[in-house]
Design a protein that fits this description.
This protein is α/β, with parallel strands linked by helices and 436 residues long. 40% of the residues lie in helices and 13% in strands. It contains 14 helices and 13 strands. Helix 14 links the parallel strand 11 and strand 12. Helix 2 packs across helix 4, helix 8 packs across helix 10 and helix 8 runs parallel beside helix 11. The chain is globular. It starts with a helix and ends with a strand.
Length: 436
């Protein structure tokens, strides 16, 4: 380990290392707060000036992170900025930006590349760069390392480069940032050693692996595992529905087997920043090796189809009640991609709204966690969340339960709604409830 990296190790050991976190969203901000919690000074970088201003004034834009959490972090040394020149002040630089798909369902690394390009003019010897954004195996050594080399930085010689995939699970009250084991792979043994040293300050358990590619593949396997199994149970739901069988009863019964079975729950489709997207990062990269990932792609097709299935079930149910979709007033319950959170990224509820709107329905939504419909690239609804009063519930021709928030009054819904399409198996079967 040369002098620059040895100096970095000393700063980490002495507790004087500064962490820079790039991207202050659902992944970056909780990580920033965790480092602050253990006494590490954090500079948070984001291109969204609104987020920066909110944080620096003690406000939060993520529901589960209270203003009290932000205030506490500010007193512990958190600073948010849009000024990437402050990169030079940090010792460990952690990238937590989105990695979406483009219109052709191919990886879009523009957020990662733009962040790295903004960092490089201010990068200095003895800094550690860690990528947490989910991506295809090879990104760290094929995309990041060459860009560092173009500026004279060689991982393991005068800087360190690691990949450590995020494992945030919004809404999970059992596991927080500090106690979710952290996988980490380095470009060299010294890179891995330094990466572990910085993360060990904030994370209870580290899982070192042999390379950045292994760490990148680990995250993909985790999410593909969920995607494939959810695809399976969604297909089983469609089959069971045609046979007049309650899939949720089937799952409950199967789950009594004490070995060899893990219950997965069907729903209206996949949502969130990982599971609907990450499998396609591997399918895209696998083609470079002449491999077609048919199993993974089939699961993706099934999950992508589910909002269409829900809309068809809604149309059939309305028809049975003497109504057409066109002109019907439909209220979608829950905009978030899963219950009890305020995150609507890739939410199937949004796709359901768009499909219903396209068929001429008059669509509203109710979600206590998302008071206003957020700005999105592909969807444009100028809507606010509807209050679930008895009068409002009764005024709609149909309610579609897309996200089963615990805060919904389900007894009231059952008593007041003319028709409910239940995509989550939350409601008992009765004359005004249709399972979808």
């Amino acid at each position: 380990m040369n002098e620059a990296l040895f100096s970095l190790q000393e700063r980490i050991n002495s507790g004087t290392a500064v962490v820079g976190i790039y991207g202050l969203g659902y992944v970056g901000l909780p990580l920033a707060l965790r480092f602050c919690e253990v006494g590490v000074k954090v500079i948070g970088f984001d291109i969204d000036a609104r987020k920066v201003d909110l944080l620096n004034s003690g406000h939060s834009y993520i529901e589960r992170l209270t203003p009290q959490c932000i205030d506490k972090a500010l007193t512990q040394g958190l600073e948010a900025t849009t000024d990437f020149a402050r990169t030079a002040e940090a010792d460990a630089l952690i990238i937590c930006v989105p990695t979406p798909l483009n219109s052709h369902r191919e990886p879009d690394l523009s957020f990662v590349i733009n962040t790295v390009e903004s960092i490089l003019p201010h990068f200095r010897p003895g800094q550690l760069l860690s990528l947490e954004s989910t991506t295809w195996p090879g990104t760290t050594d094929e995309v990041l390392a060459p860009r560092l080399a173009n500026h004279g930085f060689i991982p393991g010689e005068n800087c360190a480069l690691v990949f450590s995939p995020e494992r945030e699970d919004p809404g999970n009250t059992r596991y927080g940032t500090h106690d979710i084991p952290k996988v980490i792979g380095g470009m060299t043994p010294s890179c891995l050693e330094l990466g572990q040293a910085i993360y060990r300050l904030a994370i209870r358990t580290l899982v070192p692996v042999s390379s950045t590619r292994t760490a990148e593949m680990t995250k993909l396997l985790e999410n593909i595992h969920r995607s494939v199994n959810i695809g399976l149970v969604n297909e089983m739901k469609i089959v069971a529905d045609k046979m007049g069988i309650d899939i949720h009863e089937v799952i409950r019964a199967a789950a009594t087997k004490p070995f060899g079975f893990t219950p997965y729950q069907p729903g209206p489709g996949l949502g969130g920043h990982c599971i609907p997207i990450d499998p396609f990062y591997l399918t895209w990269k696998a083609k470079e090796y002449g491999i077609n990932t048919r199993f993974i792609e089939l699961a993706g097709e099934i999950n992508h189809y589910m909002p269409h299935w829900v809309v068809q079930k809604t149309a059939d149910a309305l028809n049975d009640h003497g109504k057409a979709v066109k002109g019907s007033r439909i209220l979608v319950l829950g905009l978030a991609y899963k219950k009890n959170i305020d995150d609507s990224r890739e939410s199937p509820a949004v796709e359901i709204m768009e499909l219903l709107h396209g068929k001429g329905a008059l669509v509203d939504y109710a979600d206590p966690h998302i008071p206003c419909f957020p700005k999105k690239r592909d969807y444009h609804f100028d809507l606010k969340s509807i209050e679930l009063s008895p009068e409002n519930i009764a005024s709609y021709d149909c309610l579609v339960l897309a996200t089963d928030h615990d805060s919904f009054d389900y007894e009231q819904l059952l008593n007041q709604a003319r028709l409910v399409i239940d995509t989550r198996g939350r409601l008992p079967r009765q004359t005004n409830v249709v399972s979808a």
